[in-house]
Model the fold of this input.
Amino acid sequence: MASDAPRFVPGEAPTGAVRAIARRALPALGVVTLLLCCWEGAKLLFAIPDQRLPHLGAIVETMLSRTQGGSGNLLVVQMLANAWATFRIAFGGFAIGTGLGLLLAVIFLQAPVLERGLLPYVIGSQTVPILAIAPMVVVGLGRIGAPGWAARVVVAAYLTFFPVTIGMLRGLRSASPESLSLMRSYAANPAQTFWKLRLPASLPYLFTSLKIAASASVIGAIVAELPAGAREGIGVMILNAAQFYNSRPPALYLAILIAGLLGVAFYCLVALAEYLVVGRRGRARPG
Done:
């Protein structure tokens, strides 16, 4: 099935490309506008106090306020700087988790007996709450002298490797029996079959898993900031805003909003990579 991503072909009018992007962006903007209207409408209709749900204008005002002490930057600038610190940790965990997931998928493909023996434990590892795993990782790595950021990267990788393993394994097995028979008729060895057939067929499944893993890595990085005693990160900002919620409720909503936007931005980066790798020649969607 051909990709529905906007295509920029030679000779295409720039206005046509702009229209294609606008058609994809307008529904999302419409949903955001509807949510904002519902937010303010709920406050007006149900008379919700500002302590429970602040006005959007109050959140914007807080966003543009100056921080007390230190550099005196805008609060939004400080939060974005902390979000960047979280993103670096999340990206490191994403890279490690993706590598581990790909390795496990290839091993399970080549050795089904290992899949039957290890896959239940891989699945079971994801049933343990991350809030229980994070302190154990922080304490364990701290005892061997590992830096604080290493524990946060490991926690982010812990949430990343599972979707990549499952998605990649399914993708590697998605090649049709007819295609595999054709490769055997050409006397292709296993390595040639992997690189020329199985790997290209797995790309749609892989990128679908990477989109899930990108958001999961951000969650892992944020959760790991708390037991690791991190000094920077959007999780630290959320915790600080929660402690002063009674005196400044909009700050907590702002921190949560930036954390959500961080996950969306990471997702969009993976989606862009998907378009650059497989979007131009079309791709079949995983079913």
Observations:
- The chain has one domain: 76-279.
- The chain is about 75% helix and 0% strand.
